[in-house]
Amino acid sequence: MIHPMRKVFVMSALGSRCKDVKLRLGKNTKRDSLSETLLNRPKMFLKNQWGHFAHMRFNLKSGRLQKMQERNTESQKKNIMPHVCGRKSFSRKRNDITIKTGKQPCRAEFFIETRTKPNGSFVCEEAKTRAEKLTTLLGQKSHVTNNDIASLDDEYAQVFGPVRP
To answer: What PANTHER family does the entry give (predicted)?
Structure first.
């Protein structure tokens, strides 16, 4: 009997790896047409398996997947300050910072940490400007506040404005 938490992890990991393999295969064997892709079959695939994969890729490209890619591209254009967490969730990143520093980071500290590259530079000029303002406000902080609850007048709210409802 497999523990339910292990099953969730294993299924998640398998799904992620399967997706990565499909993407890599799609990039390595990419051709302009379905017939060219069918002819470019890797030796490790049976003909019917490769045919199914190629048809799936081209059918998705023409319909639902194409719309989703366009929508995602438009959304990413609006993202002016990307983070450097990659696939790691914010809760895991916050936990890593807590373990490293010994205290839970406030919203301002978390913003600075997630917009700073490993070499110390920022992801963009806008993030650098906001981080400098946050650092100045954090330096002026004379009392210790509870970092668990975001207040309306914390450093983050002063720089970014009130939280959207």
So the answer is: OS10G0409366 PROTEIN-RELATED (PTHR33144), PLANT TRANSPOSASE (PTTA_EN_SPM FAMILY) (PTHR33144:SF48)
pTM score above 0.70: no
CA–CA dist 165, 163 (Å, integer): 6
Task: State the pLDDT at residue 121.
Answer: 94
In 3D space, the residue among 75, 73, 50, 154 whose CA is nearest the CA of residue 111 turns out to be 154
Cα 23 to Cα 26: distance, rounded to the nearest angstrom:
5
Please work out, in degrees rounded to the nearest 5, the angle formed at the alpha carbon of residue 98 by the alpha carbons of 93 and 103: 145
What phi-psi label fits residue 164: left (phi over 0), alpha (psi between -120 and 50 degrees) or beta?
Answer: beta
| Strand, helix or coil for residue 163 | coil
CA angle in degrees (0–180, nearest 5) for 122-123-127: 70
Tokens of 9: 């992890």
Helix (H) or strand (E) holding 13: helix 4-28
Rounded mean pLDDT of 94-119?
94
The three-state secondary structure class of 116 is strand
User: At 70, which helix (H) or strand (E)?
Assistant: helix 64-78
